[in-house]
Amino acid sequence: MYDYVDFFSSEIDELERRGGYRTFLEIQRRAGEFPAAVKCGPGQGRRISVWCSNDYLGMGQHPLVLAAMKRAVDEAGAGSGGSRNISGNNRYHVELERELAELHGMEEALIFPSGYAANDAALTVLAGRLPGCVVFSDELNHASMIAGIRHSGAEKHVFRHNDTDHLEELLAGTDPGLPKLIAFESVYSMESDVAPLERIAELAETYGAFTYLDEVHAVGMYGPGGAGKAAELGLDGRFDVIQGTLAKAFGTAGGYVAGRAPVIDAVRSFAAAFIFTTSLPPAVAAGALAAVRHLRRSDQEREQLANRARLLQGLLREHGIPVVSEAAHIVPVLVGDAAKCRGVAAELLDVHGYYVQPINAPSVPTGSERLRVTPTPHHSDDEVYAFAQALNSAWHRLDLPRTQARAAA
Ligand code: PLP
């Protein structure tokens, strides 16, 4: 008889041999003290500082968000009690969708249990239902977009990362009569670079393509009221769908798409991953709504983060520590070797109490392993200096290469 357990054990053994086995550091986040956290498991009780959170602005502990969530739990209880279609459509869901549509200057928005589900569901429907649709996808698109495109069954062409000449070549080589969809991100989180949004908008207009823009790492972070990178660059209204998450700058959980009413209605009506799943807990929607509303009014968190990110980038430049790109708030520190990447992260944690998760293949190509460092408005300037110093000493101890400018100096 087939030994199923043995099969999966050998799969895991093989993964471990290839160095790809994942372990998770167990931490207790402490509301009001972020980025401080307390370590669980080995070394239990030790206070650490988190430098790799996607709670970019610390909204996960903002008093307005916490109060809104507590109030909603008292009012509405824990879960939503159903899918949106069957008793799970709460006032908070509806208000949140209205707020998100307004934020992006779109007719409608639709929320999902996660940003992953939003991409998977929306792209499955949009690319899948347009007859003969051809998809053009940036090579560094997130796994959730890749899944949605695959599930759509549409023909796909992958263009080189942010390479609009390559995109144009592929568009020009496609039958002008066919529907086309370009899927891309604004801020790429592993690179911290920004897509050439204006050129992509122009190409889409020239070739008659539908545009699907993932602003997961940009919503709440850039543009007027946190409307995203496209809005910051004055390109609002140039893209058909803006997709975002509530789990990063907005500090809670869930994802969404926003666009013209018939487009969003099609996703609402045809996406299995929207229809056949329980809606977000009302308190999560209420917390997200409070975060979106606050960040529409307040620039303070965004400005503080920009200052901290600039300070860290400058210090790393002085130390000659290579950073992949400085175009956005994420600071991806290039190590270029899986074992050394784990080594730097271990030293930062064990010696200094700084938690940065090493990013290895398949999340990034082998040979480009990195530490994806995310400063926040809640890391003080002193902490930024201390972190840069700690990284510099780990760099020195592991004898890692410095940038050329530093080597020359
Ligand atoms: N899109 C991009 C570009 C992402 O990086 C992520 C998550 O990191 C997602 C979508 C998924 O968002 P969520 O974490 O809300 O599922």
Structure explained in plain terms:
This protein is α/β, with parallel strands linked by helices and 409 residues long. It has 15 helices and 16 strands. Strands 4-12-11-10-7-5-6 form a 7-stranded mixed β-sheet, with helices on both faces. The protein is globular, with a radius of gyration of 22 Å.
Distance between the termini: 66 Å
The tally of helices reads 15
Bound molecules: pyridoxal-5'-phosphate
Instruction: Report on the biggest sheet.
Output: 7 strands, mixed
Low-pLDDT regions: none
Estimate the helix proportion, in percent: 40-55%
Classification by helices and strands: alpha/beta
Q: DSSP strand (E) fraction?
A: 15-25%
Q: Which strands sit side by side, in order, in the main sheet?
A: 4-12-11-10-7-5-6
- Please count the beta strands (DSSP E, at least 2 residues each): 16
- Spatial extent as radius of gyration: 22 Å
Mean pLDDT: 96
User: Can you tell me the overall shape?
Assistant: globular
